[in-house]
Design goal:
GO terms for molecular function: DNA binding. This protein is mainly α. Helix content is 57%, strand content 11%.
């Protein structure tokens, strides 16, 4: 991979601390921000919204505003976002298999 290629930029986005956790949570269905925050745990509202916006900008997540009072917004994966699910599952299995050997002190 070249240093200036688009793949590196996209991988940098996916490597952000919360991106894969958000994608994994949304793979189970649409979620409101508050539900995502509870499901993921440890993420601030600001960081969650910022990460959702970045994922939306690249077409992995879509935002649906119900235009109700009180306001209600849900996030869901796009088809492209759903295509990451098997990759995330494989990565999770790999981590489970190798984490203790690679990071025994963590």
């Amino acid at each position: 991979m070249k240093a200036d290629c688009r793949a590196r930029t996209l991988l940098a986005l996916l490597a952000e601390k919360w991106a894969l956790l958000i994608i994994e949570a949304l793979s189970k269905g649409p979620r409101r921000t508050s539900a995502l925050k509870r499901q993921i745990g440890g993420i601030s509202e600001k960081m969650l919204v910022q990460t959702l916006r970045r994922l939306e900008k690249v077409g992995l997540v879509e935002r649906y505003d119900f235009r109700e009072v009180p306001p209600r917004v849900e996030y869901s994966l796009t088809e492209r976002g759903h295509s990451l699910s098997p990759i995330i599952v494989s990565l999770d299995r790999w981590v489970e298999r190798h984490a203790f050997d690679i990071l025994p002190e963590a």
